[in-house]
Amino acid sequence: MQADLTARTLRPHLDEIRDAAVDTPLDRYFRILEMAAGFPGGITLSQLVEVLALPKSTVHRLLRSLVAAGLLTARAPRYGPYVLGGRLLNLLYGGMSDDWVEWLVRPLLQELADRTGETCFLTRLSDLQVHSVAMVTPENDVRSYVVPGRILPAHAAASAKAILAFQSETVVRAILSGPLPVMTERTKTRLKDLQAEHAEIRETRIALCVGEDVPGFAGIASPIIIPGFDVKYSIAITGTIEALIERQQATYSELLRAFADRIAIAMSVRLGQAEQKTSKRPEPK
Which residues form the IclR-ED domain (predicted)? Predict the structure, then answer.
């Protein structure tokens, strides 16, 4: 328990780091962040003072700067405890490896695929592209063209739209710059049409692709939303237009929202933010 944390238990943990560290202002900031990262429940001002062997006024000044920059958050005024702040957690969130994300979400994708009998997958925004991270295909399903690592068309794929709907206008324009390829007769290529669709997605948390990238096939997707974090991921189902849109659109949409929330909770736990609710929807920047 964090309340039981004492300088006596902490000091041996940092002796080697402190002895080897160069005592510069930047190094002091990092030493505080390293301590906060090790204790998700928070660490107090007095504990940091004793463990880091720095004057209380110095530690307090460093903490104020870190809080002001969004790198730390004080759960109580003046003395803490202090935890990693939203700005730093956003960096950690964006830096999670695809392998780790796949390990985390694969059981949920498998459950969703078993319930729907359709191919289910997770996508991620990075380097101004949306690519697939993990995919589960039922044994009776031969539609496996969404392989991990595949780049999804940002203007056509439901999984990409679900993510782009929550990006800033600058990011959206950068991703959708230049002539957009016409992939089928249903492909939308005008920016204003896509922006209108993004507005609907922000309201419903559901994105659709109805024969826009592959003739005869459809996709339904929902963004992974964690309050205080950028939207980087979406979960999607792909199959025939008849199976997804004509027969099961409402049912699958509800399932996707529920599974998106479950994945958001799992990612939040990893980031030490389990206490935050996943129901709040961020607005685009």
Answer: 87-269
Q: What pTM, to 2 d.p., does this model score? A: 0.71
Read off φ and ψ for residue 148, nearest 5 degrees.
-55, 135
**Segments of the chain assigned E as strands:** 72-74, 82-84, 119-126, 129-136, 151-152, 207-210, 217-224, 233-240
Alpha carbon distance 214, 160 (integer Å): 15
* Tally of residues, the chain: 285
Within 8 A by CB and 6+ apart from 240, the residues are 143, 216, 217, 218
* Residue % of the chain over a pLDDT of 90: 47
pLDDT of residue 278: 37
Domains and CATH numbers, the chain: 2-84 (1.10.10.10), 92-270 (3.30.450.40)
Residue 158 CB neighbour total at 10 angstroms: 27
| pLDDT per residue as tens digits for the range 130-156 | 999 999 987 754 455 565 568 999 999
Distance, CA of 246 to CA of 150 (rounded, Å): 27
To the nearest 10 degrees (0 to 180), the angle between helices 45-52 and 7-20 is 50
Burial class (CB in 10 A: 0-12, 13-18, 19+), 180: middle
CB 62 within 8 A of CB 52: no
